[in-house]
Fold this protein.
Amino acid sequence: MALATPRTVARNAARLTGLIEFIFRRTDRSGDIFPADASVGIVDGLDPERVFVFGESNAVGLGVLTHELGFVGQFSRKRAASVRRGAYWSAAPVPGHRIAGAPAFVTENVASLADANVVIVMLGITDTLMLTKRASWTQHMTELVDGLLAVVPARARILLTEIPPMDNAGSISPMARLAAGHQARMFNAATRRIVADRPQTLTVRFPQELRQKLWVPESRETSYAHMYAVWARAAVETLAADDAFTARLLLSLQLGEELRPAAVENSAAPANTNDKQGAPKHRAHE
């Protein structure tokens, strides 16, 4: 049996330290703040989109007293302003706040997902600290994405927020941050590979603006509201870029269909020996 390298031993010790710290914090949630209002809302406007956010504690507003200040409320308002439409939004937690519970959550919430225009999944922080294996993350994330694609409308988009840089998680020790940061990067890379092979799915990078300093996930409403605002803006910008790409692609396909009959007609016509240029009329479009 091969002996573990010193680096592996150190990383495993760091991961265990992070797990112990996480469990200790979760046994005392007296300082946690969550919204006291309903987890559904409306942004006034025409032709409203339906937004459904689910995941771990950050998906349901950890650190703020109202969902309007949480991710789902801030995303929905920013998205509505971007596309000049209204929004019906809702948020829900995945039992256990871990990726393993997400595929079953999808099965149990088909009705909410079947008419959604935008679905946002926020998972990973808990898994990085609970020693979830990378193979397990990949398996369950694949099942989650495929399950969503099977039930959401054909034009809906699925956004997967990437795990924040746990190297900067100020609530755990430097040793635990080292291991959690490595794990988060591995999980994010696996998620990007899954998304790359599937339609309608996008990843949302954690905003660079929030990467430069330690972030402390404590119950401080002002700092949390700011974090959700910046994170929501990144999600809106990701979606807007995809909207623009899709619009260009559709326009290109439409122009191609319009030009094709003329090109076919031109190629079938006899050559014009009196045309000194000898070029078809639509060469510029070929």
Summary: The beta strands are 40-43, 49-55, 87-93, 118-122, 157-161, 201-204. The first strand starts at residue 40 and ends at 43. Residues 64 and 221 are 5 Å apart (CA to CA).
